[in-house]
Amino acid sequence: QVQLVESGGGLVQAGGSLRLSCAASGRTISSYAMGWFRQAPGKEREFVTAISWNGGTIRYADSVKGRFTISRDNAKNTVYLQMNSLKPEDTAVYYCAASGQTPYSVSRGLYDYWGQGTQVTVSS
């Protein structure tokens, strides 16, 4: 019963940076695994990164490893995605998600709650 709202998207040039935020309400996120997914035009929603409920496990898609960083602040009920060295291929709608089914997951099907998404556009 958690509601998620993403913010921080926008238009940047290749090589630039953005920080996305995911603000949760309804319940604390301290007991939820959190993840970021993205969906480009004409493509399926794909995994970007995830962090376990206690922050002990973090995983990244190979395409963003070394450039993106996920973090969570349970006290603020917020999850962040710091995106550096952005590429045009990163252009997509980015979605925040929460899972109450497992402490950690990279599977889209195990996430119960989704935000509405925020657009990230990277120009060449």
Describe this structure in words.
With 124 residues, the chain is mainly beta. The chain has strands at residues 3-7, 10-13, 18-25, 33-39, 46-51, 58-60, 68-73, 78-83, 92-99, 113-114, 118-123. Strands 2, 4, 5, 6, 9, 10 and 11 form a seven-stranded mixed β-sheet that branches.
Instruction: Classify the helix fraction into a percent range.
Output: under 10%
Give the H and E element order: EEEEEEEEEEE
Report low-confidence residues grouped into runs of 5 or more.
none
Main sheet specs: 7 strands, mixed
Which helices and strands occur, and which strands form pairs?
Elements: E1 3-7, E2 10-13, E3 18-25, E4 33-39, E5 46-51, E6 58-60, E7 68-73, E8 78-83, E9 92-99, E10 113-114, E11 118-123
Parallel strand pairs: 2-11
Antiparallel strand pairs: 1-3, 3-8, 4-5, 4-9, 5-6, 7-8, 9-10, 9-11
Summarize the structure.
With 124 residues, this protein is mainly beta. It has strands at residues 3-7, 10-13, 18-25, 33-39, 46-51, 58-60, 68-73, 78-83, 92-99, 113-114, 118-123. Strands 2, 4, 5, 6, 9, 10 and 11 form a 7-stranded mixed beta sheet that branches.
Features:
single chain, 124 residues, mainly beta, seven-stranded mixed beta sheet, four-stranded antiparallel beta sheet, 11 strands, 49% strand
